[in-house]
Amino acid sequence: MRSDWTREEIAFLFDLPFPELLFRAASVHRQCHEPSRIQLSTLLSIKTGGCPEDCGYCSQSVKADSGVEATKLMEVQQVLQSAAQAKDAGSQRFCMGAAWRNPKDRDMPAIIQIVEGVRAMGMETCMTLGMLTPKQAQMLKEAGLDYYNHNVDTGPEYYERVISTRNYEDRLDTLQNVRDAGINVCSGGIVGMGETRADRVGFVHTLATLERHPESVPVNALVPVKGTVLGDMLADTPLAKIDDIEFVRTVAVARITMPMSMVRLSAGRESMSEATQALCFFAGANSIFTGDKLLTAPNAGDDSDAEMLRKLGLSSGTGPYSDDVVGGRNKPRENVF
To answer: How many Å from the N-terminal Cα to the C-terminal Cα in the chain?
Structure first.
């Protein structure tokens, strides 16, 4: 498993002829994962709006004029009811997001109860609560949290054009706190924010050169929301939607450089054609968020996703190939070039 990728190598992958790139990505994917399985995850906003951060893409920032009203942390039982409904709908992972810069110590007891309750249902748990201290990460680990999401968002050079209230190193520090606590890392980003391909190279490079790759890598396409900095800046411009082929390229490069990670199609799917999503699955994406909403952004919906997966002949499931099923093909090849 390589963690010494250079930017030049990653740029080389991005520049490959599209069929060649997809062939390489699909080959890596088949070595490490069951190619016909798509993990289904559900994302719930357990505390919406009022975030003091100024992330230019986010409708939940206090800096945004998006009409999103701030709410308090949901009651534990409400969250558990939503988790039960998600499980009944076929989700294997329940992800929960709170619009905080960082959780306060007074919030942790309820958070712990939520994690324990969802785990008791037999679902994987994931939370995104902003920055974490080492102590908070350890508390979540002891509660049984499976994954913690903290996206790097973009490449380090473009980051300061999107967010000013925390720096890139703050993001990496939280990822390290999560890793040190023994929790699986979920970290990805957003493409289509006006960045260049070089910035997308930097985004993939950051994650692929971590000492241990994130176990989950969500790839989002920007949903330009009116009232946010990026939503207003990109509205009615050619940059308002990333080119579908470039999006698929990003998924493919993530798969090649992080072979064992779950690569998740996240925000922006509702505006993608089934053909584009099918290309993403071929390129190595093997997880999607289901339901009709991702935090505050629209999503395709359970029925639409079920029909698409049926049409593509894909089934819901999790995890890589196991040795006893395919004779050890879960070992990625040494050289993808």
So the answer is: 14
Q: What pTM, to 2 d.p., does this model score?
A: 0.87
β-strands 124-128, 37-47: how paired? unpaired
List, for residues 240-275, the tens digit of each pLDDT value: 578 899 999 999 999 999 999 999 998 888 888 999
Burial of 42 (0-12, 13-18, 19+ CB in 10 A): buried
Cα 37 from chain centroid (whole Å):
18
Catalytic residue among 51, 249, 269, 280: 51
The question of whether 95 is a catalytic residue gets the answer: yes
**List 24, 55, 166, 200, catalytic entry:** 55
Residue type for position 9 = E
Decide: residue 331, CB within 10 A, 0-12 exposed, 13-18 middle, 19+ buried.
middle
- Reported as type and span, the H/E element at residue 186 is strand 184-186
**Residue 280 annotated to the active site:** no
Q: Find the catalytic residue in 186, 255, 269, 280.
A: 186
